[in-house]
Amino acid sequence: MTNATVTRLETVPTASISDALDALGHPGSLHGIGPLASGVRVSGRAFTVRYEPVTDEPGTVGDFLDDVEPGSVIIIDNQGRTDCTVWGGIMTQIAAARGIGGTVINGTCRDTDTSLEQDYPIWSTARFMRTGKDRVRLAEVQGEVVIDGVTIRPGDYITADSDGVVAVAAGIVDEVLDLAERVEQVEADIVAAARDGSTLREARQRFSYHTLQRKQA
């Protein structure tokens, strides 16, 4: 999956995108979800998956990978559970082979050595080996999920790096990126000015650094 928006997202750190979302008054940063390995990055459209606890019927792990387009970022909401996993070695190897961009899990993953060997990008709440079979079941694919107060819909934009994961609604992504790129430029200008002899205080004042993250009218 390649388009101009994804290409722009790939060049902007999640920190600046988060700052832009704050300034515009939109939630998007997914707290508590971190990368399996450092130095990884992915950007793409969201493919959403939601799990729920089993009741009196056996659980299902789901075969949704058959429906995911290459380049997509899979967003799995397992309600933040850390007592059982919803992603393991089979899923990693198939996803990597099919060119899926990466996986973000509000919950746990396992078979982490396999994921590292495959260089497949994963962000999760935790790592834990116990299976989710008969503990959770697939509730919905390509529906709306809410993680840490952030609503994510199929086709929204996901970008993730060593700092974590940010979701940007498709309808505001251009506005967010415009401001995030401005944040990046201002920070670069501040560093350049400080290296040329300015004090940090003067450089920040000169480039209006302290107003960048304020909510805009």
Protein model, in words:
The protein is an alpha/beta fold and 217 residues long. The protein has one domain (4-175): Ribonuclease E inhibitor RraA/RraA-like (Glucose Oxidase, domain 1, 3-Layer(bba) Sandwich). Helix content is 29%, strand content 25%. It contains 6 helices and 10 strands; from the N terminus they run H-H-E-E-E-H-E-H-E-E-E-E-E-E-H-H. The protein has helices at 4-9, 14-24, 89-97, 112-118, 173-195, 200-206; strands at 34-35, 42-53, 73-77, 102-109, 122-127, 136-141, 145-147, 150-152, 157-161, 164-168. Strands 1, 2, 3, 4, 5, 6, 9 and 10 form an 8-stranded mixed sheet that branches. Helix 3 (89-97) links the parallel strand 3 and strand 4 (102-109). Helix 3 packs parallel to helix 4 (112-118). The longest helix has 23 residues, at 173-195. It is elongated and about 65 Å long. It starts with a helix and ends in an 11-residue tail after the last helix. The model has no long low-confidence stretch (mean pLDDT 90).
How many individual helices? Answer: 6
CATH architecture annotation:
3-Layer(bba) Sandwich
CATH superfamily annotation: Ribonuclease E inhibitor RraA/RraA-like
Taking the sheet with the most strands, its summary is: 8 strands, mixed
EC number: 4.1.1.112, 4.1.3.17
Family: Belongs to the class II aldolase/RraA-like family.
Binding site for substrate: 88-91, 110
Pfam families: RraA-like
Summarize the structure.
The chain is of the alpha/beta class and 217 residues long. It has helices spanning 4-9, 14-24, 89-97, 112-118, 173-195, 200-206, and strands at residues 34-35, 42-53, 73-77, 102-109, 122-127, 136-141, 145-147, 150-152, 157-161, 164-168.
